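step=encode ok
step=design start
structure_in=
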């Protein structure tokens, strides 16, 4: 967690958490179990920029902060686990690697299967007492529709972040543009 001791990394993560909480307000409910959400983009960006541990921390803090800002029902820690797992998945697949459409798709596919189709339906079945398979099958179409949309959005966000990342060394100091890349 040496990265989080650097003020630039810490403030970037805080801004990503704030952005994710704001994006959570933009969720579109389809029914009791299905919502179209875009708050995973900043979590994915944290995983991409700083790795799986920081991505997981940003995911967990985002879930808790989102609940504090706008509670919806009782707090359930399972969704915090889902947010942490999503940040870790993005960090493992994307951090330190060139962001290609295929790599972003793989990261999004893993998040969709593990979090969207396994963990979240499990938490919902525990909370509401409904069948896991019924909830998962109801989410299947939404997740399938959102997979290419979230892939395109994440890729569109990561491409400009590549420039930022090229000027950000592992210890969080911004490097002069002449040392790394002609982009800036």
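sequence_out=
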């Amino acid at each position: 967690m040496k990265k989080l001791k650097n003020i630039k990394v810490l403030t970037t993560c805080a801004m990503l958490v704030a952005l994710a909480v704001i994006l959570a307000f933009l969720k579109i409910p389809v029914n009791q179990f299905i919502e179209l959400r875009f708050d995973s983009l900043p979590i994915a960006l944290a995983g991409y920029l700083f790795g799986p541990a920081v991505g997981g921390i940003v995911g967990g803090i985002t879930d808790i902060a989102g609940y504090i800002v706008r509670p919806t029902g009782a707090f359930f820690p399972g969704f915090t686990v889902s947010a942490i797992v999503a940040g870790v998945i993005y960090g493992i697949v994307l951090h330190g690697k060139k962001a290609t459409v295929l790599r972003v798709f793989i990261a999004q596919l893993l998040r969709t299967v593990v979090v969207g189709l396994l963990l979240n339906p499990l938490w919902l079945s525990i909370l509401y007492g409904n069948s896991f398979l019924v909830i998962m099958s109801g989410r299947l179409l939404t997740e399938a529709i959102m997979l290419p949309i979230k892939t395109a959005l994440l890729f569109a966000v990561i491409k400009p972040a590549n420039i930022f990342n090229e000027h950000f060394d592992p210890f969080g100091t911004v490097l002069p543009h002449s040392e790394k890349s002609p982009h800036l």
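step=design ok
step=annotate ok -> The first helix runs from residue 7 to 24.
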